[in-house]
Amino acid sequence: MKYALSVFASLLVASTNFAESKGFTWTDADGEKPVLMFEGKPVLEYVRPKFDPSQTPPKKSATANPTIKVYHHLYDESGKVRLTNGPDGQFPHHRGIYFGFNRVSYGDKKQADVWHCTKGESQQHTGFGKHEATAEFGKHTVKVNWNGQDGKPFASEERSLTVRNSKEGRLIDFESVLSTELDKIRLDGDPQHAGFHFRANVEVEKTKGETYFLSPTGKGENGKEVNWVSGKGPVNRAWTAMSYVIDGKRYTTVYLDHPDNPKEARQSERTYGRVGTYFEYDLTKDKPLKVKYRLWVKAGEATQAECEAMRKAFVGK
To answer: Distance between CA 211 and CA 202 in Å, rounded?
Structure first.
């Protein structure tokens, strides 16, 4: 316990200890390619294409269409290594820092899948909220329509990301409010294609044998994953750490699920570089969906004590 508290204290101090005064800045904040910079190096990039169904590459499915959804890329502390994936590799429908559901139902038997987006669905950027950049953090809010097979929005989202830099890595807070004017929307899916996820760079597909997952119950074996399947498997984990290798260097992404988020949160792990959870939810006019997650991303490995300290910091304990 004393060690965990000392780790928490060091992380807290580190998260507000900035040797340089320049801090965070935005480039092209309201433009086509907003990028958050720290000390002149890229940190976070917002990918906001305009949906175009004709952009599906020849001989590939619509899941490889680069315009089907919005998401965020994350860079390492050098600014040279992009840690997240785009529409690349074996599973191009998993991209960056992303939120969505593959089994959506509403209205008169309408169905939508805003994860794969193979039948005309999409997530489309519709506007920006506030941009902030200080010595301590960078933040922006984006507005996104969730569109059905008919191309019409059935829900609208305000998605906010806040990044803090520290000697212990980067903290990324993800918050979302999803609303609808419809009477009811059923949000459902499966652990691999619904909820909030982090997808690492496509290079991890080549090094997946070196990926391992750390959780409150212990450290898994290299190349092994554990998932919720048909009512069996991990649920409601406070955190899961995914440790992976890109270009010969090990990184770790710690995924923290806030206790206020809807439950049951069903676990997703993939050794090719993805971690996330999903839940079921009935979205109504009077009951928007509000979620908040934190990612702690660092070079090297993380310990259980460090992850637990980060959890306490995240939930305010």
So the answer is: 13
Per-residue confidence (pLDDT) for residue 219, from 0 to 100:
98
Contact predicate 44/137, CB 8 Å: no
Mean pLDDT of the chain: 93
CATH of 2-315, one of 3.40.1350, 1.10.12, 3.40.50, 2.70.98: 2.70.98
Q: How far apart are CA 227 and CA 7, in angstroms?
A: 29
Q: What is the pLDDT of residues 249-272, one digit of tens each?
A: 999 999 999 999 999 999 999 999
Whether the CA torsion 230, 233, 237, 242 is positive or negative: it is negative
State which amino acid sits at residue 301. E
Q: How far apart are CA 65 and CA 52, in angstroms?
A: 8
Q: For residue 149, what pLDDT is reported?
A: 97
Contact 83/75 with Cβ under 8 angstroms? yes
DSSP, res 317 = -
